[in-house]
What we know:
Layout: H1 4-19, E1 33-38, E2 41-47, H2 56-64, E3 72-75, H3 89-96, E4 100-103, H4 115-122, E5 126-129, H5 133-139, H6 141-149, E6 153-160, E7 165-167, H7 179-189, E8 194-198, H8 199-205, E9 222-226, H9 237-240, E10 247-251, H10 258-262, E11 266-269, H11 276-289, E12 294-297, H12 301-309, E13 315-320, E14 330-331, E15 348-355, E16 358-364
Parallel strand pairs: 3-4, 4-5, 6-12, 6-13, 8-9, 8-12, 9-10, 10-11
Antiparallel strand pairs: 1-2, 1-3, 7-14, 13-16, 15-16
Helix pairs in contact: 3-4
Amino acid sequence: MASGKEADAAFMAAALALAARTIGDCAPNPSVGCVLVKDGVVVGRGWTQSGGRPHAETQALAQAGAAARGATAYVTLEPCSHHGKTPPCADALIAAGVARVVSAVGDPDPRVSGSGLAKLRAAGIAVEEGVGAAEAARIAAGFFLRIKEKRPLFALKIATTLDGRIALANGKSQWITGPAARNLVQALRARFDAILVGSGTALADDPLLTCRLEGYTGRPKVRVILDRRLRLAATSQLVKTAGVFPTWVITGGTAKADALKAAQVEVIELGMGLNDHDFILAAARTLAERGLNRVLIEGGAAIAGAFLKAGLVDQAAWFRAPAVIGGDGLGAVSDLQATDLAAITRFKRRETLSLGDDQVDFLER
């Protein structure tokens, strides 16, 4: 029979797997998992639903019903203690009569930040913290960054040849990688709240930037275009589909925005006086203020370079095809003006996958 610590770890692992189900589909809320266990048997399971509600604890308690009384709740994030669009989950656990709560990691939101666990303890419920904390923090990383640093988590997606080229000298890039790699990109998009490109990519590729993963039933992804000079054409796929898929254009000024607004594009003005660095930082803050936890950057070399220079790239998915274009091809990242190898941006390789002849490295800072 598993010891108490082994059982706690196993049940929390199940809760973490539930939490991972809606990563990228429940902003502004974090994705949370909850498992209710009584006498060694799971009596209720829940995870944050698409759009952020209902919460994981509510789902698990509803499934458990009367069996929740005297049970242990394994929750990947500290139960909320404030009245938002739903009542506090801490109150729901107390009302259900759970005997014990095992929480992986605390909630940094100042409206919670320890008060959820304090409320449980005050009600006589045994509380244990820290089980599965590292994985829980990874799952909630975007939410944590938005609360603590006022920006989303940014992941950079790049597809290159072996020599780091993303296109021919004439701009042609379709397709460097094969079908398996392109299918994985759709799965990657499903894990993010928004997909971001620059106006250069929008003009050159006329992309749709939707999640076309077979079986995906979550919310449409927000399409974010950084377009300081408002160059996006009203005839582009992004504009023509803005009434169906949320589309935000972040710009310096809105003098030419009428056609975009008429097509239901949301135009967000940051001001004309910002330099490139400050524009990127302001855009990051704006996305956080609008509730985005996780943003996938799919722009070209200029956007990749700008976010790397600003120190905002937390993760990367680097797809590589076994091909060579040569020095006249377009590079993956614009000049970073590095002068010291000790100071260049470095990543840790978390996982490598083979996709037919292609390969992808999943990296993190």
